Amino acid sequence: MIALGGRPKQTECRRFRTQWPPMRRIVLTGVPPFEVQDLAGPLEVFAQCDYEIELVSPERDGSTAINRGLRITGGTDFRTFDRPIDTLWVVGGPEAPSGHYDPAYLRWLKEMSSQARRVGASCLGTFVLAASGALEGRRVVTHWQWCDHLAERYPRVQLVRSSIFVKDGHIYTSAGITTGIDLALLFVEEDFGPRKAFAIAQWLVLFVRRTSSYAQISKLLALQSGSIKPLDDLENWIIEHLAEDISVERMAANVNMSARQFTRVFRSEKGTTPARFVERVRVEVARSLLEASGVGVKSVAAKCGFGSADSMRRSFLRVVDTTPSVVAGAHRKSGTGRGP
Q1: Angstrom distance (rounded) from CA 55 to CA 10
Q2: Residues 6 or more apart in contact with residue 184 via CB below 8 angstroms
Q3: What is the rounded CA–CA span in Å between residue 132 and residue 153?
Q4: Which domains does the chain have, with CATH numbers?
Q5: How far apart are alpha carbons 6 and 4 in whole angstroms?
Q6: Using an 8 Å Cβ cutoff, are 85 and 107 in contact?
Q7: What is the pLDDT, as a whole number, of residue 96?
Q8: I want to staple 181 with a disulfide (CB 3.0 to 4.6 A). Which of 41, 261, 284, 307 is the partner?
Q9: Is 166 in contact with 337 (CB distance < 8 Å)?
Q10: How many CB atoms lie under 10 A from the CB of residue 240?
Q11: How far apart are CA 205 and CA 41, in angstroms?
């Protein structure tokens, strides 16, 4: 059993603490059982801030099941919950798309969604929020495996299939699983500023902070889908040495092959040449930096080993059919979708 409720205890990360605005209440709710990561990821982010975190459950005893045999206690039955909500977060779970919901709970959810300053839904929690009527006419996202199902069941929502999260007015929806962490970090940035969000991301050992422009199906992850262990290790080495000259000879020596043998094996395994692979990795990492860090184009070009901004621009056009300046400009404008 896991207890959750009341004001969060002070964490070990006291270095994050500073003088924040008055405490805001975040209410976590949804149709049980919850997906573990859909709950744990955002909860860990919120726990590093001065939020008051509460669990509100459809169950009369206030507890909520998790889909790995665990149960959270210390929550409140929605029928007796009577406190103001700053942020309402609808957690996803395997039963969320079932269509079997308590009508009274859906009415409560819609009312709270209209009263809260901000609403978030993670993964399949979008189905529950849509069932309440709170998402009609809004742009929304859910996990890529369930997009067709959501579009068929709720034709009045405007489905965005590719993004990891979307904002429409005061309502945010995310693709779920790890993307709940990205959306939670955005909430922290809105409330406490980018430095706080960065500190938490760093503490969580995230590879990069993703913005809404990231696709659910990662191209960088697809490049790592091989089955030969030395090549998998090489991919990590490439990322760590992007700013350097990465020649075929150097890569081949890294995996104890001749340049000719390495090129043949690499192309057979990855479906592309080593040079094109390195270029794609450089583009993907550069795009991540431009979208998430606010670093200038010339600086990113140097960090990612392009040699010059012009060289990076040509690679971007070749690989992703856009330019670094367009990517950076989209990030500056916000990148989170339709605002209030």
Answers
A1: 18
A2: 41, 42, 45, 46, 120
A3: 13
A4: 2-203 (3.40.50.880), 219-333 (1.10.10.60)
A5: 7
A6: no
A7: 87
A8: 41
A9: yes
A10: 9
A11: 13
pLDDT tens-digit profile, the chain (340 residues) = 555 654 444 433 334 444 444 569 999 999 999 998 899 999 999 999 989 999 999 999 999 999 878 899 999 999 999 999 999 999 988 888 888 899 999 999 999 999 999 999 999 999 999 999 999 999 999 998 999 999 999 999 999 988 889 999 999 999 878 889 999 999 999 999 989 998 999 999 887 677 766 765 666 665 555 555 677 778 878 888 999 999 999 999 988 899 999 999 888 888 889 999 999 989 988 988 887 666 789 999 999 999 999 999 999 999 888 899 888 876 555 444 444 4
Rounded Cα gap, residues 33 and 314, in angstroms = 48
Supply 310's token pair: 């012009």
Asked whether 122 and 46 are in contact (CB, 8 A), the reply is no
Encoded amino acid at 210, one letter = R
